[in-house]
Amino acid sequence: MNSSHTTFASFWLYYLREHSKASTRALHYVGTTVVVAVAILAVLTASWWWLLAMPLAGYSFAWLAHFAIEKNRPATFTYPLWSLAADFRMWALWLTGRLGPELERAGVTKG
Known about the structure:
- It is a single chain.
- The chain is an all-alpha fold.
- It has one domain.
- Helices cover 68% and strands 0% of the residues.
- It has 5 helices and no strands.
- The protein has helices spanning 8-17, 22-45, 53-70, 80-95, 99-105.
- The protein is globular, with a radius of gyration of 14 Å.
- 23% of the residues are buried.
- The model has no long low-confidence stretch (mean pLDDT 93).
């Protein structure tokens, strides 16, 4: 792992390359969607205990993807805040159909 990222912009391209497989990204999307759903559920029900489930929901899908599919170490271990921000950025770009150009810029081919 390259631990020399000093800007989010440089980390972002690295992050995308660490998520080169479509199935890895798909599991991240599932995890991030569950996190958002759990947050909404916590707010709507005022059951703040649901918030404790958020990290488990998000990380379980993401780490499964890294260890079983991508065969790499999650960036969360070295860059926890940037990794979290990048997870949501990737999810938002995917939802809006704008992730493709970012993957191309990072040198990630379809797949």
